[in-house]
Design a protein that fits this description.
- Its main location: cytoplasm.
- InterPro entries: ITPase-like_fam, Maf-like.
- It is found in: Cytoplasm.
- The structure is a single chain.
- By secondary structure, the chain is of the alpha/beta class.
- Helix content is about 30%, strand content about 25%.
- It has a single domain, classed as Maf protein (Alpha-Beta Complex).
């Protein structure tokens, strides 16, 4: 890595960590610990951009010499934005909205470097889910994959069996749009494929 200073992923998500691990860059994770509420007047794209920057800046304030990558994700169906469900009933309601329909996943990413230099991107992927009967939906809810996930599913797990069609970057659906992330890293001068 050409840049001096450590790289920190401002997230404790196991899915985001798995995607970052694939790049082979040395990094560590840290929980941003920020308020995730945004103004209802913001579009889904504006909300994820704002939250990704808030998370990255929060960790960067604690480590001003580091490079910090923040991310946030929301699901949009029709004109409604879906965040993380509070309980199984909320997860059921979210999935009932998505099954048999097409929805969008928006993920914002923000890279803050030494001196506070900031670059950001928003990636959108469109997914169509199969219509499934109520008993199958309940079996999926039994997996517990809905916990902590915007839209109440994980495509890197059993939730991929709900997926009829995907348009865009699959890693975006998993929580970290790696096409955008790599572009931000390259713009910042990171080098890849180096020996440890």
């Amino acid at each position: 890595m050409k840049n001096s200073g450590e790289l920190i992923l401002a997230s404790t998500s196991s899915a985001r960590k798995a995607l970052m691990d694939g790049l082979g860059l040395p990094y560590r994770t840290e929980a941003p610990g920020v308020d995730e509420h945004v103004a209802a007047s913001l579009s889904a794209e504006e909300a994820v951009r704002s939250l990704a920057a808030r998370k990255a800046r929060a960790v960067h304030e604690r480590h001003p010499g580091a490079w910090v990558l923040g991310a946030d994700q929301l699901v949009e169906v029709g004109r409604d934005v879906l965040g993380k469900p509070q309980d199984r009933d909320a997860a059921r309601g979210q999935l009932q909205r998505l099954l048999g329909h097409t929805h969008a996943i928006h993920t914002g990413v923000c890279l803050v470097g030494p001196g506070g230099r900031l670059t950001e991107a928003v990636e959108t992927t469109r997914l169509t889910f199969f219509p499934v009967p109520p008993e199958e939906l309940e079996r999926y809810l039994d997996t517990g994959e809905w916990e902590g996930c915007a839209g109440s599913y994980r495509v890197e797990g059993q939730g991929q069996a709900l997926l009829a069609k995907l348009e865009g970057d699959r890693t975006n659906v998993q929580g970290l749009p790696m096409l955008s992330v790599v572009r931000l890293f390259r713009q910042a001068g990171f080098t890849f494929f180096t020996r440890p």
